[in-house]
Amino acid sequence: MKKSKKILCVLVFFSMVFGCSNKATSKEATENTAQKEGKVVIKIGDGGITDKEIKEEFELLPDQLKALVNTKEGKKQFIDSLVTREIIYHEAKSKGFDKNEKVLQDLEKLKKRLIIEAYLREAIKFDEKVEDKVLKDFYKKHEKEFVGPERIHAKHILVKDKKLADEILEKLKKDPGMFEKLAQEHSIDSSGKNGGDLGFLEKGTLVPEFEEALDKMKKENEISPVIKTDYGYHIIKFIKREKGNVPNFEEVKEEVKEMYLKENQRAIFDKVVGELKNKYKIEFKEEDLNALFNANKK
């Protein structure tokens, strides 16, 4: 228990010290030009950490780390991580790293990205309230995209030994009706006690060799040759195939809304970008770009 606590505390430490968010990184870019907001609750030299900063850093944590910080040990580690980051930051500044050319270049890149993100949030903002009628019409047009995967009802016998698998298959060729009995007698899979019945299997969820064999089986009660997988040797009995289920609107309403909003957002984004491309003159020489990319290949 103590070991797991230490591991979790280390996660908080790295999460905070190395800043897993843009917000944590952008602080360094603005601190020289703007006075810190909030009340200083942890004094460090001539500066310190404010209550506002602590609240903001806490909100940036994933939920599982927030729960940890709410413990006595977690809170101590969280505060220690903030202090550690702050003293490293001050020491780095005292050594002139705030004027380091690479650091300044990275800050410019970060500034550019933050400005773009802020602009786009405003430019592609739209009302997310959508009437059910609009969503239902959208669902009808995209119904195929919500259809569930194909399902196959199958049974199998799984053994570890290839020779035994071949012997079982020979018996089944003589009497296919023995499948369930042989599954109960020989299968090492938990389904053996139920005659090897696996129920309905969804395509895309099976090991490749097993699914490939099932794909070739079309006739009811058809029995496969011996199939080898990492689990052992299988003999499969195909029962039937069902097409993917088409859910009703209410079952997938939230997914439909999410898809609708994303499409609308994308449409607005494309419109904004199109207008900007018309607004600004864009010029370049193809040979210059080709030379640049060819140089990168070397």
How would you explain this protein's 3D organization?
By secondary structure, this protein is an alpha+beta fold. The chain has three domains: 2-98; 132-141 and 249-297, no CATH class; 148-242, Chitinase A, domain 3 (Roll). Helices cover 56% and strands 13% of the residues. The strands form two sheets. The protein has a four-stranded antiparallel β-sheet with strand order 4-3-6-5, with helices on both faces. A hairpin with a 2-residue loop joins strand 5 (227-229) and strand 6 (232-242). The longest helix is centred in the last third of the chain and has 27 residues, at 253-279. The two termini are 53 Å apart. Residues 20-34 have low confidence and may be disordered.
How would you summarize what this structure contains?
The chain has 298 residues and is an alpha+beta fold. It has 12 helices and 6 strands. The protein has a 4-stranded antiparallel beta sheet, with helices on both faces. A two-stranded antiparallel ribbon has the order 1-2.
**Main beta-sheet annotation:** 4 strands, antiparallel
Question: Can you write the helix and strand succession as a string?
Answer: HHEEHHHHHEHHEHEEHH
Beta-strand proportion: 5-15%
**How many separate helices?**
12
Number of domain units: 3
Flag low-confidence runs: 20-34
Look at the structure and give the mean pLDDT: 87
User: What characteristic shape results from the CA principal axes?
Assistant: elongated
